[in-house]
Amino acid sequence: MSFLDKFGPRLERFAKCPIEEDYRINILEGSVRSGKTWALHAKILQACRYRINGWRFITGQSKDTIFTNVLNDLFEIVGPKYYNYNHQTGLLRLLRSNWKVMGAKDEGSEKFLRGATIGIAICDELVLMPKGFFQMLLTRMSPEGARLFGTTNPDQPMHWLKTDYLDDEKLRKQKLLWSMHVTMDDNPNLTKEYVDSQKALYKGLFYRRYILGEWTMAEGAIYRDCWDDSLIFDDLPIPIENTIGWLDHWISVDCGVDHPQVYLEYRDDGTTIWVTREWYWDSRAQMRQKTDAQYADDLIEFMGPQGGCQVIVPPECLSFKAELVGRGIWVSEADNEVLPGIQTVSGLMNTKKLRVHRTCKNLLREIETYCWDEKAAARAVEQPLKKNDDAVDALRYGLYAKIPRWRFAA
């Protein structure tokens, strides 16, 4: 395993420790790009020849994320002759050992573990795993010498993984759980330029979690650390009527029934995303509610004579989506994951790759006042305050659906 030479001393000790000497539960937690998953590969390869009854499991949020985060690099390490993987069934043959790859996207996933006997469990991004699934997984690890190896970035400090496991000193004293906090400083393969670029990418909450590796609660204004007036513009580099030179053009929607309906227009020049216009209808202020057909008329007028662009609509707006589809408008469904969406928006702000036109007054106002919900935080729930958030929700939908992470991470 020559790839072991690429570890720093702390992770190397973990990677080379015989599985027989590991604890029942072993967790690497900390910052991004700290080498957690790379060290996990060493444990997977050890586990291939570890004599244990039961299944060898690799689990995470989904089969796709497991392949991206874990298997892709693992397959490069061992080479094509030494593995056979069926993405459909999740069955993996690796170095003459049999594995099962399984996603754990919600609490209902735990039913797929019932009846299974598990000897080795490899867990990618534990904080994204449902608590019930993790608990069921542990109950299925009945063979003597069963081991769980997991990695995770931090989350809020009241997350079940931290309160019920990482902070439980009794588990540590009984040698049932071992964990190690790692940061980018533990990864000797990162250049200074790369580390500096990652530090520039994150600010505020995401900096503390993903760079410092802290378990910290979201609080205050969401975009306070990444938004400033330099991101506001008055004139575009070319007239907005001229589509030549733009790589993409789309509109995002936040649907309003008892709150405002919002449309935002985006243009992408390949480097920067420009929010060029907004349309905002507050039915309460106007004292008049509109039908889906009327809102569709407004959208078509907002599109202008060119029209024809993609429209991003949140998944709950089924009737409005049907109205648009019936009119031949190109509609795509938004992904409503809140934290990843906020991370995309803040990443583009941090790297100065998002610009908002000064006439988008409602969006600019909401960016300044968009806050975390303190009452929800007291219940260990991390979510924005549902107040004056219609334009910023539309912004999150429009950017998270269209902009891959590499666009603002480079």
What this model shows, in words?
- The protein is α/β, with parallel strands linked by helices.
- The chain has helices at residues 9-16, 36-48, 63-78, 131-140, 160-166, 169-173, 192-201, 204-210, 283-286, 292-303, 318-326, 338-350, 361-369, 374-378, 390-400, 406-409, and strands at 25-30, 55-60, 83-85, 91-94, 97-103, 118-123, 147-152, 177-182, 232-233, 248-254, 261-268, 273-281, 310-313, 331-333, 354-357.
- It folds into two domains: 2-190, Rossmann fold (3-Layer(aba) Sandwich); 229-409, 2-Layer Sandwich (Nucleotidyltransferase, domain 5), CATH 3.30.420.280.
- It is built from 16 helices and 15 strands.
- The strands form two sheets. The chain has an eight-stranded mixed β-sheet with strand order 3-4-5-2-6-7-1-8, with helices on both faces. The chain has a seven-stranded mixed β-sheet with strand order 9-15-12-11-10-13-14.
- Strand 13 (310-313), helix 11 and strand 14 form a beta-alpha-beta unit.
- Helix 2 (36-48) crosses helix 3 and helix 10 packs across helix 11 (318-326).
- The longest helix has 16 residues, at 63-78.
- The chain is elongated, with a radius of gyration of 24 Å.
- The model has no long low-confidence stretch (mean pLDDT 91).
